[in-house]
Specification:
Elements lengths: L6 E5 L8 E3 L15 E6 L3 E11 L14 E2 L8 H14 L3 H6 L4 H4 L9 E6 L15 H11 L5 E2 H7 L4 H9 L3 E6 L17 H11 L6 E7 L5 H14 L3 E5 L7 H11 L3 E4 L5 H12 L5 E4 L11 E6 L17 H12 L2 E6 L4 H8 L4 E5 L10 E6 L5 E2 L2 E2 H12 L3 E5 L8 E4 L16 E3 L4 E3 L6 E3 L12 E4 L3 H11 L5 E4 L9 H10 L5 E4 L1 H4 L7 E6 L3 H4 L6 H13 L10 E6 L5 H7 L3 H15 L6 E9 L2 H16 L6 E6 L5 E2 L2 E10 L2 H17 L7 E6 L6
Helix pairs in contact: 1-11, 4-6, 7-8, 18-20, 19-20
The structure holds adenosine-5'-diphosphate (ADP) and zinc ion.
């Protein structure tokens, strides 16, 4: 029974950090009111919104007569369990983010809009079995039907309406006609769940893998954070699979988190066929209905394994038994907008609360994780050799100072590519810059064309004949003449992936070249197709950005060329060298994974740089200890903790004033800290708004938490805070 003064604490989707107080609906048995129910509540002048009940209490700071009543209760029981609720509460307290972003923003959209919480079926279409063997020739008079038929046919699995909409417009009518002709049929199935019909048998683990698995599985009922530190190709996936099998035997579920780029069909299929059971997936490409279904089925314990990108962390489980975070160093685990959180860091907390093991896997762990091993917080499990017995590639650092270059390539790298082509072996080239040329300038006066909204240089994309701003997406036609001096000698400086392809095409006209970057893979499914072509040997040279560097298995690649590393060695951002080292190790890991051994070619103007030399020796441990020493000497994370406040507005002064006032508030605090700024970030203006930042640093997490808890509510009270757009980033990963 609740007291007659029953007050409901409700989360509502607003940018405020506040929780709202309401009275229960009239004429309701108050005993049914428990946390995690959805409520419809009046909000503002005349709006009705859906909120989440957090707590039932008798306390409120607001006079009773001013409180509004909840209009209705949407659910008869909590939509998820206490475990997830505590987890969200903790995440909110740690990151100090608006409650709506944490409690509502992490739920499937259909839950937030008040949908009925039932698993419902999804329409999918497949080629009818009867006519499977016929060609689509007889559809040649109906090109749209033929296109749809061919498209469905080219996929092994039935396609959803969402997938068809990605490729076709107005496809429903031609599809109906195909159904009528019995060429295509509708299958109705619950999403996400499919069992592979091809089951692969277990591999015999090598002693290192055996050791890792037995350490993890010997204590399945305890929080046990493990860093699985295994070189590329050492068989980390096999360790995950063995541990998951054990967890499933104990009737529990497993959550596997992957970086955004890692969740490929290839990976999912491999998991399915190794585990031989249902695998559910959760990622941004799902339709709202699919996402809700997966969420519900996982909550109810109807799937054993959930593979997903960072948002999958917010799924309720009936009985979670293990979390795996693959490629734990990957930056995509950090959400960079709205609710800024690190899915890797929160996964550790979730495992802690559920008292289960968690495996962080990487060939190139983050400095944070290595530091935690040093502190005795994580257990380190090493896999030091390649599971297939193939050798690690030789890494050569090529001094390009004063050397002749053809486009972005040195003569010696081109020679190697040519040799590789003659041997019919594949080459992978890594150039972390998309577009044609990063600078478009006037040869007469030196004016550089910049984005009018961000004031930074724009990249020339030859394919579109336009200049693109890679920060805000702004595009414009290339000017025929210089806007400054009206000269007509506009030139392109530097090399992006598009230009590198052009160079290669001129030099190797017969080679089959594939470019993989954000532009070339924009269309859904195109990345999959390219990867497939590569693995089927239909590509001789692939060139790409970091999309190509991560996680993929290319057995045919024997030569890897790294075109440009120098900016990573000399960047203003102290994390740039960590990322460069990780990328070089990851890219190098792509070479020689098959039967033939590989070679890695690094072009550099700094061939004697100590960091490059450790990478040449495949010694990421030494590399990371150099970096950690640097961080310790300069008092940077992980030796300290940081929080960054970003402010932006269309006036420079307003952003600055707000941050200055915020800084002044800190002066009264008795909690020890350092504060830097307000300062101008490397990108001063973005999409027309001026940006400013304030950096806060403390000796440890506890101090940071206490300081933020006291400071953030005060900042929210500042008049000047209402005149800017501001956000807080705890443990920032970049200062952009
Ligand atoms: P990682 O994720 O550590 O880079 P993978 O898990 O992709 O490595 O494994 C690399 C290759 O080694 C895969 O082809 C895998 O099938 C194979 N492999 C893994 N473990 C074994 C084993 N115990 N015996 C034989 N081959 C193995
Ligand atoms: Zn811009």
């Amino acid at each position: 029974m609740h007291s007659p003064n029953c007050i409901l604490k409700v989360v509502i989707d607003t940018p405020l950090r506040k929780i709202f107080d309401y009275l229960p609906p009239a004429n309701i048995d108050e005993s049914i009111l428990v946390p995690a129910l959805r409520l419809r509540v009046p909000f503002g002048k005349s709006k009705k919104v859906i909120g989440l009940l957090l707590e039932v209490t008798d306390k409120t700071g607001i006079p009773r007569h001013k409180l509004k009543r909840v209009e209705s209760v949407l659910d008869s029981e909590p939509i998820f369990g206490q475990e997830l609720l505590y987890f969200m509460q903790w995440a909110r307290d740690y990151y100090h983010q608006p409650a709506g972003d944490v409690f509502l923003g992490t739920l499937p959209r259909l839950i937030r809009t008040g949908s009925n919480l039932e698993v419902s079926s999804i329409e999918k279409w497949e080629i009818s079995e009867v006519v499977e063997k016929q060609t689509s020739e007889f559809l040649k008079n109906s090109p749209k039907q033929k296109a749809i038929y061919d498209y469905i046919k080219s996929h092994k699995q039935p396609l959803t309406s969402g997938q068809l909409s990605d490729v076709f417009t107005n496809w429903r009518i031609p599809l109906k006609q195909l159904e009528r002709k019995k060429l295509v049929s509708k299958v109705t199935q619950e999403n996400g769940i499919s069992i592979s019909n091809k089951i692969l048998s277990d591999l015999k683990l090598n002693p290192e893998q055996e050791q890792a698995v037995s350490t993890i599985t010997s204590r399945l009922n305890d929080y046990q954070p493990c860093l699985l530190y295994g070189i590329t190709g050492s068989g980390k996936t096999e360790v995950y699979i063995k541990c998951i099998q054990e967890v499933i035997k104990n009737n529990r579920q497993a959550l596997v988190l992957l970086p955004e780029i890692g969740l490929t069909t290839q990976f999912i299929n491999y998991f399915k066929s190794r585990l031989g059971l249902e695998i559910a997936v959760m990622h941004s490409g799902l339709t709202d209905r699919e996402r809700l279904n997966t969420w519900l089925r996982t909550r109810d314990g109807n799937n054993r394994v959930l593979l997903g990108t960072r948002s999958a962390l917010w799924t309720p489980f009936k009985k979670l038994g293990l979390i795996v975070v693959d490629e734990e160093h990957d930056l995509s685990y950090k959400q960079q907008e709205n609710f800024r959180y690190s899915a890797r860091d929160l996964a550790l907390l979730r495992a802690h609360q559920a008292r289960i093991p968690i495996i962080l896997g990487s060939a190139t762990p983050s400095m944070e994780s290595i530091y935690n091993v040093m502190q005795g917080k994580y257990r380190e499990l090493c896999l030091g050799r390649r599971a297939t017995g193939s050798r690690l590639p030789d890494i050569l650092i090529k001094d390009i100072r004063g050397k002749n270059m053809t486009g972005a390539f040195s003569t010696s790298l081109l020679k190697q590519i040519e040799i590789n082509l003659q041997k019919n072996e594949q080459t992978l080239l890594f150039l972390n810059r998309r577009g044609f040329a990063p600078v478009y300038m006037c040869h007469d006066c030196g004016a550089i064309i910049k984005c009018p909204r961000c004031e930074i240089r724009m990249t020339y994309h030859k394919s579109t004949g336009r200049l693109h701003c890679h920060h805000c997406g702004h595009q414009e036609r290339i000017p025929g003449q210089c806007p400054q001096c009206s000269g007509e000698n506009m030139i392109e400086i530097g090399h992006g992936t598009q230009r590198a392809v052009e160079t290669l095409e001129t030099l190797f006209p017969k080679a089959r070249i594939s470019r993989i970057d954000r532009d070339s893979t924009r269309r859904k499914g195109s990345m999959e197709t390219m990867l497939k072509d590569i693995n089927e040997g239909k590509v001789d040279i692939m060139i790409g950005t970091q999309m190509l560097a991560k996680g993929h298995h290319f057995p045919g690649v024997t030569l890897v060329g790294i075109i440009d590393t120098d900016h990573g060695l000399h960047s203003a951002d102290y994390r740039a060298s960590e990322r460069m080292g990780q990328l070089i190790m990851q890219v190098s890991g792509r070479a020689g994974r098959g039967d033939k051994s590989g070679m890695v070619y690094i072009q550099s103007h700094f061939p004697d740089h100590p960091l490059l030399l450790t990478l040449k020796a495949h010694d990421y441990k030494q590399y990371s200890s150099l970096l950690l020493k640097e961080r310790a000497d300069t008092g940077l994370p992980p030796y300290t903790c940081q929080a960054l406040i970003r402010a932006e507005s269309n006036s420079k002064e307003r952003s600055q004033r707000f941050l200055q006032e915020a800084r002044q508030l800190l002066a009264g605090s008795g909690i020890s800290h350092d504060v830097f700024g307000p300062f101008i970030p490397p990108i001063e203006k973005r999409a027309g708004r001026y940006r400013m930042q304030l950096l806060l640093q403390t000796e440890n997490r506890k101090l940071l938490g206490e300081l933020l808890a006291e400071w953030i509510p005060e900042i929210e009270q500042l008049q000047s805070s209402r005149k800017v757009r501001w956000s807080l980033d705890v443990d920032p990963q970049d200062m952009l």
